Amino acid sequence: MRFRPLTIIPLLVSSICIVVLLQLGRQDARYLVPALVVVGVTLLPAFLARRRIRRVLKSGDVHGVLSAWQSSMDRVPHRETMAPLMIATAYASHGWLDASRKALAHAVKGPAWEAAREQRLFVEVLLCTFEGEAELAEGKASELEKLPLPPSMFLRRRVGELRVGVGALVRAFAHKSDVSDERRLTRAAEVSPLVHWAMQYGAAIVAIDHGKRDRARTLIASAPAWPAESAFAQFHSELMNKLD
Q1: Which residues contact residue 1 at a Cβ distance below 8 angstroms, ignoring those fewer than 6 apart?
Q2: pLDDT number for residue 220
Q3: Is the pTM of this model over 0.90?
């Protein structure tokens, strides 16, 4: 991706202003108010945008997610490979199994194909899990867990927790969970709001299997009305029948 220095100039200028004003504020309290205003003006839009996208990701509206991602998909390097993979990820995370597989089939197996192995495995684990292919899902989850972690400590933690959550999801749908898997699923949903509802249904299964029916009800109480295209519609109906 090409580096565009002009895009960071406003951020640099704002950061310098904040530092200068905060230093002045230590000497004279009158500068604290303008410093706080600058901090708010600089950080608030990014905070609101992040909160808005998290709300979309957790809404259960796959078309809303794809719409929010459209500009990113238009700009992503190796778009012929990565855009279909992004679409497949969104659909798989919302239980749209056929749509996800069709998107995967459109991904060009070019230079980015092997580099995107983690994302491909992630999608395949979700699809196999939701299609009831437990043994295949376990094998792919094991492959995913063995991949190298990114060097960044921040990304390392997030990717690690998501992988752990995916393993817990596979065990939940195979009814092989342990009592700690609900926490692993919840943590994965916090790290990646895109899989919020996948992890919620996994956690509900864990709760039912361990005799916590009230907890299971709470986990799926606010679920959206899933369309027929989503496997989550069937999962929700089956879980509610067990809880009645």
Answers
A1: 77
A2: 96
A3: no
Q: What is the pLDDT of residues 9-54, one digit of tens each?
A: 444 444 545 555 455 555 555 544 554 555 555 555 554 456 676 7
Cβ count near 3 (within 10 Å):
6
State the residue for tokens 């509610």.
240
The answer to whether 64 touches 72, Cβ cutoff 8 Å, is no
How remote is the C-alpha of 234 from its chain's centroid?
A: 22
> From CA 21, how far away is CA 117, in angstroms rounded?
46
CA distance 142 to 154: 22
CA-CA-CA-CA dihedral for 218, 188, 85, 176, to nearest 10: -80
Q: How far is CA 104 from CA 43, 201, 213, 229, in A?
A: 37, 24, 36, 17
Bin 175: left if φ > 0, else alpha if -120 < ψ < 50, else beta.
Answer: left
Q: Rounded distance, CA 139 to CA 96, Å?
A: 22
